[in-house]
Amino acid sequence: MTSIYWFDNAFLPEEEVRISPSDRGYYFGDGIYEVFRVYGGRLFEADAHYERLRLSAEGLKLALPWGIDGIRQAMDELVRRNGLTEGTVYLQITRGVAPRNHLYPAGVSPVALAYTREIARPVLAMDRGISVVTLEDIRWLHCNYKTLNLLANVMAKQEAAERGAADAILHRSGIVTESSASNVMIVKDGILRTHPADNLILHGVTRAVTLRLARAAEIPVEERPFTLEELYGADEAFVTGTTVEVTPIVSVDGRELGSGAAGPVTRRLQRDFAAAIGLA
Q1: Does 146 participate in catalysis according to the annotation?
Q2: DSSP string spanning 114-179?
Q3: In angstroms, rounded to a whole number, what is the distance separating the alpha carbons of residues 164 and 8?
Q4: Contacts 24+ apart (CB under 8 A), 107-112
Q5: What is residue 278's DSSP assignment?
Q6: Alpha carbon 226 to chain centroid distance?
Q7: Does the reported pTM lie above 0.85?
Q8: Residue 91: alpha-carbon gap to chain centroid
Q9: Share of the chain residues as helix, strand and coil, in percent rounded to the nearest 5
């Protein structure tokens, strides 16, 4: 089946999509994106994703073509046209096509593109857990904007893979921020801790859902920075994200974390998340 893309406010077969080499997303990474999870043919937590898209666009002074309502309608139609029941929607908006110049160009129309992918839930990783390594967070100081500038994240993920790990946990001078593509949470003495949603991390939609579920389950929550030593000494740890949901961490830098398996708080949040997406 031919995959249908949304490009320049039209629905096209993939082979008809043409990106200009003068697109500012190509040579500056001057753009933003969102990745939506689709369960049962519906975008999960769509309002939260669209609000983050709006805030990212506002931060970059980037106009959203067709507005949030127009984009929302297009994404729903894209899912319908591709017959997607379980997977993701990737949406990217660049500032547009213009001669190469560092200054924002005037009178340029943003370029929007979106497509769907079938992706199964990571059931095995959520059951067994993953091993991670820690790396210095060398990214810029506006990680709260979901921009196309992901090279530092890519480099971290690649180094983790080369060291036999599934992901890299990033830190700034010993203060844990997030992973290369997800948010990080630890549990110590029954208390759930995660870095506050400031400019040093991406405000994850799954992060917000997980914290909401934890509070509903009367699990104490602290949104505060924690150290590498606290990560090493945690009873439990896990990452949260659109494609990883709630995935336990079972070792860090070759050290077994906690019992070496998913703990009771992690399992409770996994069950509650499954219920939230209508699978329990």
Answers
A1: yes
A2: EEEEE----HHHHHH-EEEEEEE--S-S-TTS-BS--HHHHHHHHHHHHTT-SEEEEEETTEEEEE
A3: 41
A4: 108/24, 109/65, 110/62, 110/63, 110/64, 110/65, 111/8, 111/19, 111/20, 111/23, 111/25, 111/31, 112/6, 112/7, 112/8, 112/9, 112/65, 112/66, 112/71
A5: T
A6: 21
A7: yes
A8: 12
A9: 30, 30, 40
Would you call 34 helix, strand, or coil by DSSP? Answer: strand
**Between the CA atoms of 244, 200, 193 and 48, what dihedral angle is there, to the nearest 10 degrees?**
-50
Which residues are paired to 246 by β-bridges? 240
Mean pLDDT of 5-13: 96
Report residue 199 as tokens: 């400019």
Please, how many CA atoms are within 13 Å of residue 6, restricted to the half-sphere of its CB? Answer: 26
Q: Are 129 and 43 in contact (CB under 8 A)?
A: no
Over the stretch 50-59, which tens digit does the pLDDT of each residue have? 999 999 999 9
- What are the tens digits of pLDDT across the range 120-166? 999 999 999 999 999 999 999 999 999 999 999 999 999 999 999 99
Question: What are the two backbone dihedrals, phi and then psi, of residue 115, each rounded to the nearest 5 degrees?
Answer: -150, 165
Residue 247 DSSP SS3 = strand
- Check pLDDT > 60 for residue 1: no
Residue 243 buriedness (CB in 10 A; 0-12 / 13-18 / 19+): middle
C-beta of residue 248 within 8 angstroms of C-beta of residue 127: no
Catalytic residue selected from 61, 146, 157, 188: 146
State the Cα–Cα distance between residues 208 and 214, nearest whole angstrom: 10
Tell which residue, 277, 246, 242, has the closest CA to residue 263.
246
**Residue 69 phi/psi, 5° resolution?**
-65, -40
In sequence order, what are the residues at sequence separation of 6 or more whose Cβ sits closer than 8 angstroms to the Cβ of residue 75? Answer: 6, 36, 43, 46, 89, 91, 114
